[in-house]
Specification:
single chain; alpha/beta; Rossmann fold; GMP Synthetase, Chain A, domain 3; 2 domains; four-stranded mixed β-sheet; 20 strands; binds 5'-O-[hydroxy(phenylacetyl)phosphoryl]adenosine
């Protein structure tokens, strides 16, 4: 698609030199370590036990001396134990639900909210969005960081914001078409649901005013990206973030340098470690992404183990590094009959076969000692019985030859595969029932 929307020149702050960035990161890191040590007793104890002190930090590489922080650390300190400010300074709380146990709670000072808004505004601007655009936000509003995070950023940029939140898909479609939103922010799986609703109502998604979508909060395959771009006629850009760091806007795909995402390294310091040994690995190699906040006041997080798999490398446009799009989390991996399988690998193959609708779910079950992987999918309403049969065989064959695992395919009636209204639940594991 032709790129008429100029972006980077509107954001001089991202045009720092490598040296300026290094200096900024080093100063900010030192300050963050000192604050964490002085104001969060948990860090002080952990680092004392570990034999490290903020004085041991001089150069950026020294960060490797400090221990990791995990979701468990936040859980142990539930709800506010890791805050570095008194509660009277905290103007906002968010929480991520997680699948088990207590939620992890995150807090923001007024300055944190301003920084966050600025980073989302930057991400949108570099996605080609600006004043004069109407941004329809279908990320959930509430304790999830998606809705409000996107909202404050879009508003700061001067866009007209439609705070639709998630759900009521028919109403979303009415709003998008009647108000003529030019940009949408939503999870990719919910976008598929919105597209489906448009098609059901005889609306061609390409006929809407949408020009760009900023999608994130869950892994999505390149094939899904292509499908969304093709069906809606938009640029589908990737935005990454996590509540422990801030929310959306830690990294974002840039319209003038498409593919993967720039990490906003002036606010977050990324590292990659081996996913099994946790030893640091060189740029250019895949491993677990580790992030340290450089400007967060309320909740400084040092070396957070995100469990997201990515690779860092130098981009062409900016002096901040790029991270490869996240196709999986370390805890997403399914081991089926001894073979490691990521849901995204199945998605990539599945979405290439035209007979199937893009809504799917993976069901894991056990017969005796054997694991079974069944893919629940729907077919397009006009698919003939023969083409369905043939497509099932193609799917099974491509998965067997590409991933090395035999799967079962179960064709469901229209609407039977649950539709996402936020983060899709791709895998249902019934093996321990
Ligand atoms: O999902 C924040 C967010 C909201 C990001 C809206 C982007 C857009 P959490 O609920 O804490 O925060 O979940 C964070 O979601 O560790 C990744 O596993 C996953 N994730 C987020 N963005 C992406 C992305 C928000 N672009 C977790 N691609 C992260 C793949 C993503 N996975």
């Amino acid at each position: 698609m032709e790129n008429k929307r100029k972006t980077v020149s509107y954001y001089p702050k991202v045009l720092v030199s490598k040296d300026e960035l290094l200096d900024l990161q080093t100063r900010r890191m030192k300050h963050t370590l000192l604050r964490a040590y002085s104001f969060v007793p948990y860090y002080k104890k952990k680092w004392d036990d570990h034999g490290v002190h903020p004085d041991d930090f001089t150069f950026l590489e020294d960060i490797k001396k400090f221990p990791f922080t995990t979701k468990e650390d936040l859980r142990v300190n539930y709800p506010f134990g890791m805050f570095a400010n008194p509660m009277s300074d905290i103007v906002r709380l968010h929480a991520s639900s997680g699948t088990t146990g207590k939620p992890t709670v995150v807090g923001y000072t007024r300055k944190d909210i301003a920084t966050w808004s600025d980073l989302v505004a930057r991400s949108l601007r570099l996605g080609g969005i600006g004043k004069g655009d109407m941004v329809h936000i279908s990320y959930g509003y509430g304790l999830f960081t998606g809705g409000l995070g996107a909202h404050y950023g879009a508003e700061k940029l001067g866009c007209t914001v439609v705070p639709a939140s998630g759900g009521f898909t028919d109403k979303q479609v009415t709003l998008i078409t009647d108000f003529k939103a030019t940009a949408i922010m939503v999870t990719p799986s919910y976008m598929l649901n919105i597209i489906e609703e448009m098609e059901r109502r005889g609306i061609d998604p390409k006929e809407t005013a949408l020009k760009v979508g900023i999608f994130g909060a869950e892994p999505w395959s390149m094939e899904m990206k292509r499908k969304i771009e093709e069906k809606v006629g938009i640029d589908a850009l990737d935005i990454y973030g996590l509540s422990e760091m801030m929310g959306p806007g830690v990294a974002c795909e840039v319209l003038e340098d498409r593919g993967d995402m720039y990490v906003w390294e002036d606010h977050f310091y990324p590292e990659i470690v081996d996913k099994d040994t946790f030893k640091p690995i060189q740029d250019g190699n895949e491993g677990e992404l580790i992030l340290t906040t450089l400007t967060k006041e309320a909740l400084p997080i040092i070396r957070y183990r995100t469990k997201d798999l990515s690779t860092l490398y130098n981009g062409d446009l900016l002096n901040m590094r790029k991270m490869k799009r996240i196709h999986a989390r370390t805890d997403d991996m399914m081991i089926v009959r001894g073979v490691n399988v990521f849901p995204s690998q199945i998605e990539e193959i599945l979405l290439k076969i035209d007979t199937f609708s893009p809504h799917y779910q993976i069901i894991l079950s056990r017969t005796g000692n054997m694991d079974d992987l069944t893919i629940n999918i729907e077919t397009k309403t006009n698919a003939s019985e023969n083409s369905i049969k043939e497509s099932i065989n193609i799917l099974k064959h491509r998965i067997k030859s590409g991933i090395g695992v035999s799967v079962k395919v179960s064709i469901k009636a229209y609407g039977e595969v649950p539709r996402s209204e936020g983060k899709a639940k791709r895998v249902v594991d019934n093996r321990n029932l």
